[in-house]
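FIELD: query
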Amino acid sequence: MNRIDTQSGRTGGIERRLANAAELAGIPWLSLLSTAERARAVDDLRVGDASAGEFVCRVGRPVTYWFGVIEGLLKMSSDNAEGVTMTFLGVPPGGWFGEGTLLKREPYRYNIQALRKSLVAGLPIDTFHWLLDHSIGFNRFVMNQLNERLGQFIAAREIDRMSDPEIRVARTLASLFNPLLYPGVGEVLRITQQELAYLVGLSRQRVNEALTALQAVGLIRVEYGGLRVLDLAALRGSLEIRPKVAKARSS
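FIELD: result
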């Protein structure tokens, strides 16, 4: 049976197949390739469904694919020596991850797990390196990814040090609406409060309270099945949020 990888903790791997036209349209870097480059990438790309709770890759396993999310939501995390899980970030539609690991051809230093049923694409590591050797457009995309990812990880470290739930939720939402890393999200992020709680590291009840506060000051709007961001710049800031929420609560 064909597998996209052998990293799953539940089923032993994700069944893979060729991507169809609609799925290929959701891969942002394909449009940057020449005709010949695109043809090779499309021939080698594979997609597969990851069930909720299934691991796409795990700590210590050898890297085999460059992964991207076409539909669904993944989380990147690792466990410390005490067995406590630290979540680094969420990966919504349009997001590709693991460039640094592929460049160094080293084992994974993190786990990637599906928070809901997700459609995941994989580009073999050898094809990834072939594109780096032949495509200027692909190189630029990867460099932009690395630059944005660095900023994202710095922000994630800042979030870990924050005790204010509203700011933690706001900054996590802002990271998920990054148009360069996650062009497939659009204007509405399809996410449940429980999924957001997993990413933020708070209880579902506390996340609900934070979302209510952020909606009250006009930064987001909670919609059926997801969230709409109304002021992305304000979500990215931290000092501006506190006085707005405090004012809304006192009025």
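FIELD: remark
The radius of gyration is 19 Å.
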